[in-house]
Prior knowledge:
Blueprint: E1 8-9, E2 12-13, H1 18-30, E3 37-40, H2 46-57, E4 61-66, H3 70-82, E5 87-91, H4 97-110, E6 116-119, H5 134-162, E7 165-170, H6 174-177, H7 183-203, E8 208-215, H8 224-227, H9 230-238, H10 248-259, E9 270-273
Parallel strand pairs: 3-4, 3-6, 4-5, 6-7, 7-8, 8-9
Antiparallel strand pairs: 1-2
Amino acid sequence: MQAPQCHHIEGFRLGNSPIGRYIFGKIKDMINLDGRIAVITGGSRGIGAACAVLFARAGADVGILFYSDKRAADRVAADVRKRGKKALIVRVDVARMKDCEDAIRTVTRELGNVDILVNSAGIWEHAPVARMSTAEWEKTISVNLGGTMNMIRAVVPSMISRKYGRIINIASTAGQRGEAEHSHYAASKGGVIALTKSLGVELIPRGIWVNCVSPGWVDTDMASGTLKNRRRKKEIEESIPRGRVAGAMDVAGPVLFLASNLADHVVGANISVNGGSVLA
Length: 280
């Protein structure tokens, strides 16, 4: 006869007991996004795409916002639908407030009111300060920081009226420690962290949780040029106590946690997801 399934919490063996079933049933409920509508910017690739799929697995219908790669967005949407959830793809330039407002109106009309916003859209471009143009500076700030704020402003009025919302911003270790020859990127992500802290305390009385995740190196399209260099990749891996570069799903997991009821008392927080390379 098959042994009953056992669960372990802090050294306690719960077994297939009523209390064990109760506790793990509650945990399952707390990570359950059934009936929720999530909007994810940068949803066609990398961290955004991983979040879209993971949120669908947790029960959410997903608005996948993309900028340039519709084919990739279509593939992510197909993956969401395979899990029995609704998916809608919408093209948006997050640097343009009107685009953000139009995208949220479209999602609301087609899927319903937005419960969860994940701000994952971003750019990372090399630009030593001595050669950085005004256009390069403004582009990075307007997409990474301005785009995050634009999307928040687009969803917050509805969230306030319903007294519920979860906003998770994707920042970066660069925003914590700086990054040589990417100072515009580091400044934009440092701004995202400060924005998260400010809005976290401003909006929690209105029933809206705002938090962020700061990844280190992640094996996505954004970092592919650097990680293709075997010597450079080895150097990067050796700088990470965990011993490896993260995958997109390594970041999507903490994002899902922040979107769930398990994070009920987490407000204005910045969760470092970098394998121990930056402890802040």
